[in-house]
């Protein structure tokens, strides 16, 4: 089905990891804050990762129609993909800021982004807080029509989109490792400007922690297409894709 039925209060999209699927039901009769909570809850049930660890869910897909911003708040230019970022911490309201300059409403989400039957492949990106005392998770959902069958790119990594990898990530985030981390020596980042120098110190210590706990392959350094989110630099591949 290519379009939503305006008389229907629900849209069903699919989230996929390897051969595992989960239907995510969006109930448009609810307030936006409740829609968002339900989306985070359903994705968490699928991944096995606590909602508390999740920062945001991002979606990318082919545009609905030919409109661009401002008519379509999810598409910046004619040759662009449609993008949507849903942050867990953002207050729920009918009008929701989208990106740095866009605003959209619940009706925009329904009419101009999601379509019943949309299928998204999941990348789960793990990271550490700059204080290095805890983990966070970001879900990146990429529409199947945008994914090359064999090659990774900046939008999607095949290596981390498998159930065994996701299960290991869930085990890490749901463990007591954070208690261990709080007892370890860490750079002091409180009340400091997070500049290149501090970033280098934190990154070095982060890699040491990953090596000590043998968990580095489940973070951003896993794939050669992985990049540093803040400084936009390509990270070297430390672990081979077939490492368990």
Describe the structure.
The chain has 244 residues and is an alpha/beta fold. It contains five helices and eight strands. The protein has helices spanning 32-47, 106-112, 163-173, 177-182, 196-213, and strands at residues 10-17, 20-27, 54-61, 82-87, 95-98, 102-105, 119-128, 135-143. The strands form two sheets. It has a six-stranded mixed β-sheet with strand order 2-1-7-8-3-4, with helices on both faces. Strands 5-6 form a two-stranded antiparallel ribbon. The termini are far apart. Mean pLDDT is 84; it is low at 228-234 and 237-244.
Give the helix/strand layout.
Elements: E1 10-17, E2 20-27, H1 32-47, E3 54-61, E4 82-87, E5 95-98, E6 102-105, H2 106-112, E7 119-128, E8 135-143, H3 163-173, H4 177-182, H5 196-213
Parallel strand pairs: 1-7, 3-8
Antiparallel strand pairs: 1-2, 3-4, 5-6, 7-8
Number of strands: 8
Q: Could you give the distance between the termini?
A: 39 Å
Beta fraction: 15-25%
- CA gyration radius, whole angstroms: 19 Å
Uncertain stretches: 228-234, 237-244
Oligomer: single chain
Strand order in the largest sheet: 2-1-7-8-3-4
Largest pleated sheet: 6 strands, mixed
Bin the helical content: 10-25%
Instruction: Based on Cα principal axes, name the global outline.
Output: globular
The average pLDDT value, as a whole number, equals 84
Count up the helices. Answer: 5
SSE run: EEHEEEEHEEHHH
Category by helix and strand content: alpha/beta
């Amino acid at each position: 089905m290519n379009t939503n039925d305006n008389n229907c209060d629900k849209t069903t999209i699919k989230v996929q990891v390897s051969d595992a699927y989960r239907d995510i039901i969006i109930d448009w009769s609810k307030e936006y804050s409740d829609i968002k909570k339900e989306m985070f809850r359903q994705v968490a049930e699928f991944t096995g990762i606590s909602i508390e660890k999740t920062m945001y869910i991002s979606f990318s897909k082919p545009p609905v129609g030919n409109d661009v911003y401002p008519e379509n708040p999810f598409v910046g230019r004619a040759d662009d993909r449609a993008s949507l970022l849903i942050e867990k911490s953002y207050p729920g309201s009918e009008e929701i800021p989208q990106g740095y300059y866009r605003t959209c409403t619940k009706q925009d989400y329904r009419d101009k982004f999601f379509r019943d039957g949309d299928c998204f492949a999941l990348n789960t990106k793990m990271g550490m807080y700059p204080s290095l005392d805890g983990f966070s998770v970001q879900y990146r959902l990429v529409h199947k029509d945008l994914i090359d069958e064999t090659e990774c790119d900046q939008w999607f990594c095949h290596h981390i989109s498998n159930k065994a990898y996701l299960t290991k990530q869930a085990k890490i985030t749901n463990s007591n490792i954070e208690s261990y981390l709080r007892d370890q020596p860490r750079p002091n980042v409180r009340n400091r400007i997070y500049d290149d120098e501090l970033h280098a110190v934190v990154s070095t210590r982060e890699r040491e922690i990953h090596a000590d706990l043998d968990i580095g392959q489940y973070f951003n350094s896993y794939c050669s297409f992985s990049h540093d989110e803040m400084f936009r630099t390509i990270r070297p591949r430390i672990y081979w894709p077939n490492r368990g």
